[in-house]
Amino acid sequence: MKKTVLRNYAKLIAQKGINVQKGQEVCITAELDQPEFVKILVEECYRAGAGKVIVDWYYQPLTKLNVRWQKEKVLSKVEEWEKARLQHKVDVLPALIYLESEDPDGLKGVNMNKMVKAQQAKRKISKPYRDLMDNKYQWCIAAVPGAEWAKKVFPNERKSKAIEKLWEAILYTSRATGDPIANWEEHNRDLSERCKFLNSLDIETLEYKSSNGTDFKVGMIETAKFLGGSEKTLGSNIEFNANIPSEEIFITPQKGKAEGIVYSSKPLSYQGQMIENFSVRFENGKAVEVKAEKNEELLKSIINMDENSAYLGEVALVPYDSPIRNSEILFYNTLFDENAACHLAFGEGFTNCLEDYDSLTLEECRNRGINDSLIHVDFMIGTKDLNITAVTRKGERVEIFKNGNWAF
């Protein structure tokens, strides 16, 4: 891939993704697959005004070794220096960039029970720090092609060709070709207009029906609003784009108001393992039954991560006619696959979906119906024939999706 193209992509992440501010600290989390691009990204963050850029490297084989050899007590511990680093983030509010490139099957064979228990213990320690940062900092998740990921997506290509093809797919679906900055400004305007229309309806319930068996309804919080595209930080009012790519318009539903069954339309890559062909049945807002042809136990571990992980934290609307779906590529990566189909998410909801969230405490947001959990896991349910009807608080029925796409 040409360096000029990669540099434009890096500029997009630095300028429209996190929108780094003058003198701001930036933290990048990346795997070992694309060090040259990470170098370019670091430089673009500095060019955009960053005062300090830190890179944390992650490597799946080391994670497997740690889970295998460390005792569960050791694996579950958050060291004092790690707590100090979390506190530093609370104090400094750095912009965070997450570069995804991991192998979708990279943790296959790991002791999942041991790893999940360790994650539960560590997240209980880290969550209060994350809550203190909630909505106050810029962050962005983007992707670069890892070798094993590329071979998973393009199994019939040699490794170098697979990486090149995955680069092309990432850049195309991320609207990073041509003038990426202008592309995203236009895209954000479109998403903003759709949000305005949806928010004008005063929706009480969304009803989903699809020929694959999905028959589901979910309730909305009265003061919640749909969001999409760029967001703004609380207090400093800095605009940023959290996901590159992003095609979704989303809202946090009312905890406890979800009924019926949904069927997955794409595999879910979770913790380096694939969950395939699954269904989820809800009663009183809670996932009470899950079935999967592959990795059903892993799916069960997700909804049992904590007392609220079986409740929904997000409802997202994505048209079937989107760049990612139209690419006809199954990415085996949630960042991309969730933006090819309507999806739901188990776990933590978004407090900034409430109209007046800036004047509410975190506890007051929870009392309004925003779910609180250690996790947030998206799963895809959108199909070519999915129909979604909105029922307003006045009792009117408005068609939102028809045959997989916007009905307005």
Write a short abstract of this structure.
With 408 residues, the chain is of the alpha+beta class.
Provide a descriptive summary of the structure in words:
The protein is built from 13 helices and 20 strands. The protein is of the alpha+beta class. Strands 5, 6, 11, 12, 13, 14, 18, 19 and 20 form a nine-stranded antiparallel β-sheet that branches. Strands 7-10-15-16-17 form a five-stranded antiparallel β-sheet, covered by helices on one side. Helix 6 links the parallel strand 3 and strand 4. Helix 1 packs across helix 2. The radius of gyration is 20 Å and the shape is globular. The two termini are 38 Å apart. The model has no long low-confidence stretch (mean pLDDT 96).
Labels describing this entry:
single chain; about 400 residues; 9-stranded antiparallel sheet; 5-stranded antiparallel sheet; 20 strands; globular
CA-CA gap between termini:
38 Å
Q: Supply the helix-strand structural class.
A: alpha+beta
Give the mean pLDDT.
96
Query: How many beta strands in the DSSP annotation?
Result: 20
Percent of residues in helical segments?
25-40%
Determine the number of helices (DSSP H or I, runs of at least 4 residues): 13
The stretches of 5 or more residues where confidence is low (pLDDT under 50) are: none
Name the shape in a single word.
Answer: globular
Biggest β-sheet strands, sense, barrel: 9 strands, antiparallel
**Gyration radius, rounded:** 20 Å
Task: Assess the beta-strand content as a share of residues.
Answer: 25-35%
